[in-house]
Amino acid sequence: MTNRVFNFGAGPSMMPEAVLDRARADMLDWRHSGMSPMEVSHRSNLFQDLLIEIQQKCREIFSIPSHYQVLFLAGGAQGQFAAVPLNLTAKNSQVDYLHSGVWSGLAVEEAQKYAQVNVAASGQSSQFFSFPEPHNWQLNPEAAYFYYCVNETITGLRLRHLPSISVPIVADMTSCFGAENFDINQYGIVFSSAQKNLGQAGVTIVIVREDLLDLALPTVPGILHYAKQAKADSCVNTPPTYAIYILGLMLDWMKEQGGLLAIEKMNQRKAKLLYDYLETTDFYQPFVDPAYRSIINVSFRLANENQTSAFVSAAEKAGLVGLKGHKKLGGIRASLYNAITEKMVEALVSFMKEFAAKAG
Ligand SMILES: *Cc1c(COP(=O)(O)O)cnc(C)c1O
Question: Where does ligand 1 bind, in terms of residues with CB under 6 Å?
């Protein structure tokens, strides 16, 4: 028996115990090298073979065709907030962004340093708990690309429907990549750092359509340069080797669970457990408009906000941690990333019922 807690934190997040066990077994002698995965040269055949394997696993699990490059970069998702405009605006500096919350807001701020940003729509007037309908967006058909954050992690706002968009679409999928199905063919670029659904912080998966590789400004730092990184198999410099190794274990785990569609179904069931309960009570109040609710990050407040900190500490005592809402929002947020099981969500809902019964 271990004393591991159920970690509902927004990230770095919980990992499946099977993956941690595997990492422990490999720690002193990985693949008969006499070294841990983190002690191996990134130029060695051992690591280069691992990179090829993980590329192939990504292509299989996410159905990525050969005209997309799969890069494993450092700098986090926020590194991509700069890399995207730097890599795509040499010929045309007009770009379209949706402002749907904190993460896309930071992406807008970063892009404004390098490009002429048009905010095509903003959810600011509804405090990012809802979003304007697509027919109200002010899209620029001349833009070099259209950028949005699919799942805003802090509020738990999920943008489900895009109108038809003729320019390349760039998506920050950091909090839903690996947790929900998507069709890569609709995108020019998809990126996600790993620490939400795919392991440990340090590596960012960047999937780039090949026709977008020669649009880079001359000032792009080499380590963020998509074409250079593609040519060097993500090894322009030392890549985050251990985070890449862990990503490989997470992809194996995903395959064992039945792949992306099976994982999405499980995640939908988990979210339904929690939202269904939230519908039955006034004690807890979800923040986000039902049409835009995330299945990954579920945010709500207690009707009596004075009870929030008592809720968080009682939950911790019950082994349910990481539930305190983001400081910009307050309230409670339960992040239901891949390693959270249905049983853990059931435990959370039982706890919430008990707390409401005692306090209400
Ligand atoms: C966590 C998160 C980020 C920030 O990721 P870093 O790897 O810390 O830069 C960006 N976008 C979204 C949607 C996130 O959830």
Answer: 11, 76-78, 103, 149, 153, 172, 174-175, 193, 196
Q: Mean of the pLDDT values across residues 226-247?
A: 98
Active site residue 91: no
Alpha-carbon gap, residue 33 to 37, rounded angstroms: 9
Helix, strand, coil % over all residues of the chain, rounded to 5: 40, 20, 40
pTM: 0.97
Smallest CA separation from ligand 1 atom 10, residue = 77
What is the predicted pLDDT for the residue at 104?
Answer: 98
Q: Please name the residue that has the structure tokens 């005692």.
A: 358
Packing angle, helices 342-359 and 308-317, rounded to 10? 130
Ligand 1, atom 4, lies closest to the CA of 77
- Write out 1-31 in H/E/C secondary structure: CCCCCEECCCCCCCCCHHHHHHHHHHCCCHH
- Is 172 catalytic? The answer is yes
Helix (H) / strand (E) element for 281: namely none
- Rounded to the nearest integer, the mean pLDDT of the chain is 97
Classify each residue of 211-231 as buried b or exposed e, where b means 16 or more C-beta atoms within 10 Å of its C-beta: ebbebbbeebeebbbbbebbe
Is 233 labeled as catalytic in the residue annotation?
no
